[in-house]
């Protein structure tokens, strides 16, 4: 039996995304547009397997072959005949659903490996005796031999995603260290190249000198082409005594399918903004050009209030251990008009609310670029997981000068964050009913503020390539020091490249803190329809939820490496520490013993002190966060943030001991079953599935009806071509090499 940290329990929550009504309201043309965008997203999402672990593509290919030959019900009979219990077979289905849901064998939320919760020998009998193995015995046996050991292995380095000795990642070859990642970032900055769509591969030559390959994601390879924007960069470089080679063609056959679907979607675009957006995305994925993706993002920002909303590309850098490379994701969604109306009112109040934030006006953007902010019902979200809200694009230069869009994913919020009273942990009994009543509404408020005024606020001080500054060096004063600004971002530097490993978590912490701070403003609560005691309850539950989340975050801390595995949860722990530091009994964490006799804990928030003690503490903290971000002061920023993020056993909280309690009582994140769209003649149909592990597997079984076997072969070939970079981890399948 594996440690419960590394398994998905048989009773894991599974929910289906409901978008039936929103899809029904689409016109035939809008449905076709949504269908082809969804196909593009699902194809591109397969690249995540190649961005996660060396074995993930093989596991996916093995599972897909297994379930194509026999659906879960048919395979059950075979499994029982092979000696599995029904519980063991369910454990396998949950594992398979987890792989599909996370696009790999590491949790998207926490980056922890999960393994099948049944004996390896029994699973081997099921696989090698399956109908898939009967049809293709050599291929199935080869896949099992390649990934079977790694599927179950919990060697210390393989338990988490990470770099060097800290874990496994396929954003970098297996011998790369954090020092290699920093050197590569300096090289990319020197050439004004973005890391978002790259991976780094290191080899040592005969003289013992390292040689680095920076590989861009693209359909095109290194053959000469007419796209001088990228081809001029495809060459050898000497940098700080090391050899770098910039190449492209990563995930080429996968991106080819993405481009083909985007081309089809273009025929059904609602306007020229959408058409030009898709043209630039296709150029980006074909050539490997982030600049083209930026151009596409500009058109996307300008496409205000579309009925069908979407975004696609190498977007979030949470899972890159260095914090610069983007994981592929794509989403397609439809507008929820009722909630969107509230968000539009929030946008209309944004300029006034920005003035309430606790930093000087000179640290705010020169002009607030009014964004779109809509509540969406998700049709498709391809990648490693589904967030509750998004503020994109992530390109600093676009955000500062062109703007951004905010989206709240309404039907995700409705299922992913619903809580049953009996499963509520770490709350006092008298808080539980109030928490259940107001958690959803308070989370709507928090997501709105977090995305719009958290991620949407603040200015970066920049000196461009011509030496010009976007702030007045003479008059702008640092409120923390009382002196003129001493540091800023140089040309080519970005927030992610400069703050690297802490960038994502630091920014999430800033956005979460803004949400907590501004939810105290009566105007905000009125926008969402809350007044009087209801408004006070929303505030209390929002703050209580953050405090509880800070405690739950300890699940995602690894004591052995003294590191955090999840940016959002690290951010919430930092906020908990800030509020505890405020003192005066605002927040208390109380160790207790549960009714089962095992260790437990409760969080207490004194609601009478939220404004008098909590608000001033957040004011001080938020100003520090923003000033250090604006000025690009990495040294002081790290010292501040890593100080709060430190997990020790110092009394009174004794967080390392509390972590054991949190692990003892943790609840797994839900799996979400998404629908498919199917083109029948010229009409698009919505195909839905039951909320179960079998339903999730069935959705993937039917996701690629035309080319499933081809996609599996592509994944095997791509993984095998690079297997040498992780030779200490994985042995390529002999029949595929």
Condensed summary:
47% of the residues lie in helices and 14% in strands. The strands form 7 sheets. A 5-stranded mixed beta sheet has the order 6-7-8-10-9. It is built from 28 helices and 19 strands.
Core attributes:
cytoplasm, alpha+beta, Dipeptidyl peptidase 3, globular, 737 residues, 14% strand, single chain, zinc ion binding, 4-stranded mixed beta sheet, aminopeptidase activity, Dipeptidyl-peptase3
Overview of the structural elements:
- It is a single chain.
- This protein is an alpha+beta fold.
- The protein contains 28 helices and 19 strands.
- The protein has a five-stranded mixed beta sheet with strand order 6-7-8-10-9. Strands 2-3-5-4 form a four-stranded mixed beta sheet. The protein has a two-stranded parallel sheet with strand order 1-17.
- Helix 13 (272-287) packs antiparallel against helix 14.
- The longest helix has 26 residues, at 429-454.
- The model has no long low-confidence stretch (mean pLDDT 94).
Largest sheet, in brief, is: 5 strands, mixed
Radius of gyration: 25 Å
According to DSSP, the number of beta strands is 19
Total helices: the number is: 28
Structural class estimated from helices and strands = alpha+beta
- The mean pLDDT is 94
Helix content: 40-55%
Please state the overall shape, judged from the principal axes of the Cα atoms.
globular
| N-to-C CA distance | 34 Å
Question: Would you identify the regions where 5 or more consecutive residues have pLDDT less than 50?
Answer: none
Strand order of the largest sheet: 6-7-8-10-9
Portion in strands? 5-15%
